[in-house]
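Lab notebook, bench 4. The sequencing result for the construct came back, and we need a structural model before the next group meeting so we can plan mutations. Quick request posted to the team channel:

Model the 3D structure of this chain.
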Amino acid sequence: MQYKTEKTTLNFIKKESTNTPVINYSGFNELQEYSDDYGFEDADIIDARSLPDVSFSVDKQGFELVSFTPRKVDYLDSAAVKASYYAEVEALVKKQLGASHVVAFDHTVRRGIEGSNRHPAYHIHNDYTYETGFIRAESELDADIMSKYAGKRMVQINVWRSIAGVVQKDPLAFMDNKTLDEDDLVTAHIAFNDMNTGEKHRGEIFAVKQNPNQKWYFYSHMDSSEAMLIKGFDTDKSKAGFAMHTAFPLSGQDDHGTPRQSIETRTYAFFDDQ
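Done. Here's the predicted structure in token form:
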């Protein structure tokens, strides 16, 4: 099969590392800082748009491209996003997954420009570990929701999309979950200080060491009428658990193209019959 590929580098955990990797966000204009456990390695990223007969889903590969054209909102106004955009994201996830109930609980706007406190994340990661996926739900969601769906299937989904037209720089790459060897997973610590709110966040995420069996994909020229569903956690162990993902540089992107601006909205989906 003929397909298009981007030859690039991705930020893996070094093979020889035995430490706990650390990522630090200053909360200001600086890019993320990484401990010496990280290192960039050559990788081929397949453009999924060049595979016309191949489709991906959150339950098989851990990620899925969908159409999504929400109403206009000021994405820099957090209150406006929560008041309007969250409901549309919840409806999208509910429809795509066939869920009984969906709750959007958080979002991040990333802008690769001066004055932004969150930039594209150049480290391969999953937002949660097996433990923190459930812990985050307990800390963010109402107790009555957790009680109502206790013992039922719970899935964490991020909805990621461009908020400034076609993505020309720093698109997202996704690993097919079926090609992940869990022996390559590494628990990393992440620290973030928000220059606007003063929030200090500390958490644990999954990072990964490189393995030649891994398959990586991206969607070229994503625009604001599309969204990626990215699974971060699933209590159903028969489905893909999550999708490792990262921003990566397109060839020649520093010579042309505007900085990527995007929003990722975090949700939990619940199922009555699973």
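The chain is about 15% helix and 35% strand.
Will bring this to the meeting.
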